[in-house]
Specification:
six-stranded antiparallel sheet, 144 residues, 2 helices, Metal Binding Protein, Guanine Nucleotide Exchange Factor, Chain A
C-alpha cells in the first residue's frame, strides 16, 4: 500500500501482523486496496442503527445516521463520523479515471472511494462508497 503523504498512522503493524489478524479477503481490500464484488457485502442494505468502525483497527468511521441508499452495490455514507476519521488521497489506479480514495485515518487501511456531484439528495452531495468487508457495525443499544 502506498503511504499517505504527510500522515503517520496511529496504528502501525507489520504486513505479517496484518496477514495474521485479517481474513484473506479483508487483507486484500484493507491493505491492498481491493474491492469486494457489488451487492455482496453484509452492510450494503443494512438499516440497523449504530456505528461503523474500521475492521482492521476498530476506529469509528461512519454512523448509520449518514448511511443512505445509493443502489450502487456498496454501503454509502454522505459524511464520516468525524472530520478526522478518514484520510483522502488521489487514486489514479484506473487509467483516465481519477478518483478519491478513502482511508482509515488511524491505520491507513483502504475503505473505498468518495464521489461528489452525483445528484444524491444528501446534505454534502458526497457518496462515500465503502466496502462492507472494511467495516464492522456496532449496533445501537436497545432500550431496556
Amino acid at each position: 500500500m502506498k503511504p499517505v503523504v504527510g500522515a503517520t498512522p496511529r496504528v502501525v503493524k507489520s504486513e505479517q501482523e496484518w496477514r495474521e489478524e485479517l481474513a484473506p479477503e479483508e487483507y486484500q481490500v484493507l491493505r491492498h486496496a481491493g474491492t469486494e464484488q457489488p451487492f455482496t457485502g453484509e452492510y450494503t442494505d443494512t438499516k440497523t442503527g449504530g456505528v461503523y468502525s474500521c475492521r482492521a483497527c476498530d476506529a469509528e468511521l461512519f454512523t448509520s445516521d449518514t448511511k443512505f441508499d445509493s443502489h450502487c452495490g456498496w454501503p454509502s455514507f454522505y459524511d464520516p463520523a468525524d472530520s478526522d476519521a478518514v484520510l483522502l488521497r488521489e487514486d489514479r489506479s484506473i487509467a483516465g479515471r481519477p478518483r478519491i480514495e478513502v482511508l482509515c485515518a488511524a491505520c491507513h487501511s483502504h475503505l473505498g472511494h468518495v464521489f461528489s456531484g452525483e445528484g444524491y439528495e444528501t446534505p454534502t452531495d458526497q457518496r462515500y462508497c465503502i466496502n462492507s468487508i472494511a467495516l464492522t457495525l456496532r449496533p445501537e443499544a436497545e432500550d431496556q
